[in-house]
Design goal:
This protein is an alpha/beta fold and 280 residues long. The protein has 7 helices and 15 strands. It has helices spanning 15-21, 39-46, 59-69, 86-98, 169-189, 196-213, 220-255, and strands at residues 2-8, 27-32, 49-52, 74-77, 82-83, 102-113, 116-117, 127-133, 137-140, 146-149, 152-155, 160-162, 259-260, 265-267, 273-275. Strands 1, 2, 3, 4, 5, 6, 7, 8, 11 and 12 form a 10-stranded mixed beta sheet that branches. Strands 13-14-15 form a 3-stranded antiparallel beta sheet, with no helix packed on it. Helix 1 packs parallel to helix 2 (39-46). The chain is globular and about 65 Å long. The N and C termini lie far apart (83 Å). Residues 263-280 have low confidence and may be disordered.
Length: 280
């Protein structure tokens, strides 16, 4: 028995195709982050079991919540902008029947952006652990989360189709702004700090890596756009880490005790010079 888990939030434009592609699963669990559109109505009409649960900027907790609701011996996680093809379905069913000692499977992901399959660049060799035995592990990290599975892990050959940013560059900007805010906080809380030079050089290096060394230019104009978007993602993450650093530095400065600045002058805690009491 296989359970499919899908996280949703205002995905009325894509969720129907995603659910239809996993309708062969024994159960479909949808964890909805209080969508304001028709996402819930669509998912229920297709036969999914829908749970409403606030994301609170923690994707690992959201996925683990869905995992706890499943009853199947195997669990398949699919995002609301992904499609499971019949070929991938057949390979998954065949694999879990024959590979008795395998606890989980990596699945390749094929990105299709602006109507073009991306064969190069950063997304060309993405493999994600999305199919595993129930109870084999939990999801970790609040964003860009990973499934930590105990046991042997194999890989499937047939890709999962991914249609990111269906709303174009504007949607990418909305998503990347949210994800980089969360990611920057994770990095900052683990002790990572950045310099101005890193804010400048990392995005440039990211672009060169994806567009030149990973042959993104072979994907044409789409490859150029993707390389620029990934570079911007890098810039925002480091820029927001720097912003957190500056915020902490400002708070520490405000918290410092007032120090005398001379016989007739003293500096208050906000750095403003004021006349000292003449009697002192």
């Amino acid at each position: 028995m296989i359970s499919a888990v899908i996280l949703t939030h205002n995905n009325e434009d894509s969720i129907q195709k995603t659910l239809e592609s996993v309708a062969w699963c024994d159960e479909m669990i949808v964890v909805d982050d209080y969508s304001m559109d028709k996402t819930r109505e669509i998912t229920k009409s297709i036969g999914a079991i829908v749970y409403q649960h606030a994301l609170n900027d923690d994707f690992a907790i959201q996925r683990n919540y869905g995992l706890e609701k499943t009853t199947g011996g195997w669990v398949l996680f699919v995002d609301s902008d992904e499609i499971v093809t019949k070929e991938l379905r057949d390979e998954m069913l065949k694999s879990i029947q024959h590979d008795k000692n395998v606890a989980g499977y990596y699945i390749k992901r094929q990105d299709i952006l602006f109507g073009r399959e991306l064969k190069y660049g950063e997304t060309a060799n993405v493999k994600l652990l999305r199919l595993a035995k129930n109870g084999a592990g939990k999801w970790e990290r609040v964003v860009h989360e990973t499934w930590n599975i105990k046991g042997s892990i194999a890989s499937l050959e047939t890709p999962l189709l991914h249609y990111p940013h269906s709303g174009g560059v504007a949607e990418f900007l909305r998503q990347v702004n949210r994800y980089t805010t969360i990611n920057a906080r994770v990095f900052y809380d683990t002790g990572i700090r950045v310099s101005v030079w890193q804010i400048i050089m990392y995005p440039i290096a990211k672009f060169i890596q994806n567009y030149i060394f990973r042959l993104g230019f072979l994907d044409g104009a789409v490859g150029l756009v993707v390389a620029m978007m990934m570079s911007f993602h890098s810039f925002l993450t480091r820029g927001k880490i720097w912003e957190l650093q500056m915020s902490l530095r400002a708070k520490r400065s405000e918290a410092k005790p007032c120090l005398p600045a001379g016989r007739n002058l003293s500096r208050d805690c906000h750095g403003l010079r004021q006349l000292a009491d003449p009697s002192q």
